[in-house]
Amino acid sequence: MAQWYYVDKNKQRIGPMEAGVLVDAMRHGQLDINSLVWREGMPVWQPLSMHLDALGVPESMRMRKAPKSNNASMWIVVAVVIGLGAIPVLGILIAIALPAYQDYTVRAKVSEGLNQAAVLKLATSETRLQTGKWPNNNEEAGYSQQTSNVVSEISIPSPQDIRITYSSNVPEVAGATLMLRAEVDANGVIHWECNALGSNKLGGPSGTILPKYVPSSCRP
Fold it and tell me: Were both Cys, which of 82, 136, 181, 207 would link to 177 (CB 3.0–4.6 Å)?
């Protein structure tokens, strides 16, 4: 099968991966229809929007626009206030904007962990479809441990579940976990849900990471 690459929001090249993994990364907000993608045989990097059919992107995801940054809007307001010389108000806005921006940067790193887990999700799904059983650990899924500056471990703690553990390089979530739970529907299609602290979608265990640091799909 064709192996795809894409450029993430930090301008880093991610890949190789199969089309399904790339679409899953899109579902988790790692890229959108305007992101650049490439596979062998393409002369240049091209917008994902040119390859929606080849990648099998669902119709529900094709109309998504690139998310607007609330933080960018906040800094526009700050700039206007500077122009007006309203220093006291400026201080209040900065006090609001800085924590919001810090939370945003942590969420971006947490999302990197979700993207890295896409490989194990695919391996787990393939094992379930081929054997009719969920793998009990990484070895049964045929997955080799991968770590990064953001993630210290991605593992299968129990059937149907994947646990992402974040490294000390991200102090706000150091040692915290995000849990993924899988389920097979009546048509034999595997669906995944993400659970942070206080979330138990699909009856899965909660992670320990605070909801403010995760994508909205992982919150209670």
Answer: 207
